[in-house]
Write a structure and sequence with these properties.
Layout lengths: L2 E2 H4 L5 E12 L2 E6 L1 E2 L13 E3 L2 E9 L2 E6 L8 E6 L1 H25 L3 E6 L4 E5 L5 H16 L5 E5 L1 H4 L14 E6 L3 E4 L15 E8 L2 E7 L1
Parallel strand pairs: 1-4
Antiparallel strand pairs: 2-3, 2-8, 3-7, 5-6, 5-8, 6-7, 9-10, 10-15, 11-12, 12-13, 14-15
């Protein structure tokens, strides 16, 4: 089982760990550590890049209780390593993901239009809304989300049971059971999410919607932070 440092400390970029398993992933060497700050592809957010000592991490995969680091050279079980997460890539991902929460919350609060999908790309991100959206609605949601950014509200992480989650005003019903990790922007959004986020909304900078298209009976909104 891998302890996921990014769950409680998304600002961590450097950590110590021990190799507890050696594998292959799609023909490439891979290792599992006892603890890691590397985020695996999940929930629309791409994986982190970086290094374990002098070895490059080129992919990170979620395998149940284990986080699998695909590397350029294998290393033995028991080896102690220093992991370094690519800081620029992680910072970009935290900006985009928190910006998505704010934009999705704005569409939900102002227009009762739920986000049903999210994808973070190398250049732009998209959210899929359940219903069609007008440019007037987009402008309103964009403005509301940016006001929260500029207010520099705190972004906090907490863990709750499924029973407790049922008593809270979550933006949408969680898709998993058991202990839930919640991301909260006070007075604006509370969502179950396993991704990495900024610690203050001001770190997002600005949220800019760049396009919209019809998608599966609703709308796909393209944005950048």
């Amino acid at each position: 089982m891998t302890v996921r440092i990014y769950y409680t400390d998304p600002t961590c970029r450097r950590f110590d760990g021990t190799v507890i398993d050696v594998r292959e992933h799609e023909g490439r060497p891979a290792v599992v550590l006892d603890r890691t700050a590397f985020y695996p592809t999940s929930g629309g957010q791409p994986f982190d890049l970086g290094r374990l000592d002098e070895v490059d991490v080129i992919d990170v995969v979620d395998d149940g209780d284990a986080v699998v680091h695909v590397v350029t050279a294998t290393m033995p079980v028991g080896r102690r390593v220093v992991g370094v997460v690519d800081a620029a890539r992680r910072a970009d991902h935290t900006q985009q993901h928190t910006g998505q929460h704010l934009l999705s919350a704005a569409f939900d609060r102002l227009f009762d239009n739920r986000t049903v999908g999210f994808h973070m790309g190398a250049e732009v991100c998209t959210i899929d809304l359940a219903r069609p959206v007008s440019w007037a609605d987009i402008a309103g949601a964009e403005q509301a989300a940016n006001e929260i950014v500029w207010q520099n509200r705190p972004v906090s992480v907490r863990f709750v049971s499924a029973t407790e989650a049922g008593t809270l005003p979550l933006r949408k019903e969680p898709s998993r059971e058991g202990t839930l990790r919640l991301i909260e922007v006070p007075g604006f959004d509370l969502s179950a999410c396993g991704g990495t986020h900024v610690t203050q909304t001001g770190e997002v900078g600005v949220i800019a919607v760049t396009g919209v298209e019809k998608f599966k009976g609703g709308s796909r909104v393209t944005f950048v932070c």
